[in-house]
Write a structure and sequence with these properties.
The chain is globular, with a radius of gyration of 16 Å. Helices cover 0% and strands 49% of the residues. By secondary structure, the protein is mainly β. The protein has a six-stranded mixed β-sheet with strand order 3-4-7-10-13-16, with no helix packed on it. A five-stranded parallel β-sheet has the order 1-5-8-11-14, with no helix packed on it.
Length: 171
């Protein structure tokens, strides 16, 4: 959202797999990573939307799942957490590589979003693997921002296996 209003929610359900890979050409001929995005841009007012992905296997290469809020550092932000954006990934296998990520960050005074990671079928195993130094999972506050970071939760998993993976939350 670039003006007033709330961003919409995005839901992706796939029987076999979801693969985000590559770059897209924008209207101004610049390049951007392939991404699923729901957020409020600088100067906009409203709530960031949530993203839900449910698939047995998720692969993100040079792209990402992103909810973000750009807010004025002087903006009054509600303490009510009922409208916090959330990225929910239900997948048994997640692989992130290249310049990719699952990001629920804030840029300003608004609270960052939350990330919920769980297996495709409740009670199953979940494996998360990041390849390279640029892939990340983050629910943080950007440098110079005053809003608190969000939470990262892994739930409903019998075994959670993280390979080469760091989960970042910061304020």
């Amino acid at each position: 959202v670039f003006g007033r209003g709330d961003a919409g929610d995005v839901s992706i359900n796939a029987i076999n797999s979801v693969n985000l890979d590559g770059e897209v050409i924008l209207a101004d001929n610049s390049m951007a990573a392939a991404a699923v995005f729901s957020g409020i841009e600088l100067g906009g007012t409203g709530e960031a939307g949530s993203i839900s992905v449910k698939t047995p296997s998720l692969s993100i290469r040079n792209g990402g799942l992103t909810t973000s809020t750009f807010s004025s550092l002087n903006e009054t932000v509600s303490d009510d957490d009922s409208n916090i954006s959330t990225i929910t990934v239900s997948a048994d296998e997640m692989e992130l590589s290249g310049n990719s990520g699952i990001l629920a960050d804030t840029f300003g005074s608004a609270r960052g979003g939350d990330i919920l990671l769980q297996p495709y079928a409740p009670g199953g195993d979940i494996e998360i693997n990041t390849i390279g130094n640029s892939a990340e999972i983050s629910a943080s506050t950007a440098r110079g921002s005053s809003g608190p970071g969000g939470n990262i939760t892994i739930q409903n998993a019998e075994i959670a296996r993280l390979e080469n993976t760091e989960l970042f939350t910061s304020s």
